[in-house]
């Protein structure tokens, strides 16, 4: 959800809050073990997404395409840090790899970190927690510093 919200520039997703004079453009996204192409999930993943979207890919392919971050890639998006465990069986690391490749081709700034032997929720476990938090902090600090330099 964070990656989809961060890279999509869809007015329908904007909302109608009381801050119309303030940009809600996202500057940075950290996405961990993120499904980027929902149709390419395994059967279990598609089942979970179908419950969330209230439709299967066959019932509403346009909705599934719209809900897949990979279909929102375009030039000028935010900086993205993708972190994925190589032992993730729920969302295969290829999801992050394919997204990173397409994002780079579109001119986007993306960093892909593949964590050896890490499972799907790696950020919850001691061997990976500290490294994950440190990488996230360095990423956000770098993006904020670059943003201040441009402003």
Total helices: the number is 5
> What order do the SSEs take from the amino end to the carboxyl end, as H and E?
HEHHEHEH
Alpha-carbon distance between the termini? 28 Å
Q: What profile does the largest beta sheet have? A: 3 strands, parallel
Radius of gyration (Å): 16 Å
| Total strands | 3
Uncertain segments are: none
Structural class: alpha/beta
Helix content: 25-40%
Shape: globular
Percent of residues in β-strands? 5-15%
Q: Averaged pLDDT, please?
A: 92
* Multimer state: single chain
The main sheet orders its strands as 1-2-3
Write a brief caption for the model:
The protein is built from five helices and three strands.
Structural summary, described in words:
This protein is of the alpha/beta class and 151 residues long. Helices cover 40% and strands 12% of the residues. The chain has five helices and three strands; from the N terminus they run αβααβαβα. The two termini are 28 Å apart.
Write the layout of secondary structure elements.
Layout: H1 2-7, E1 28-32, H2 43-53, H3 61-66, E2 79-85, H4 94-105, E3 110-115, H5 126-150
Parallel strand pairs: 1-2, 2-3
Task: Please tag this protein with its features.
151 residues, alpha/beta
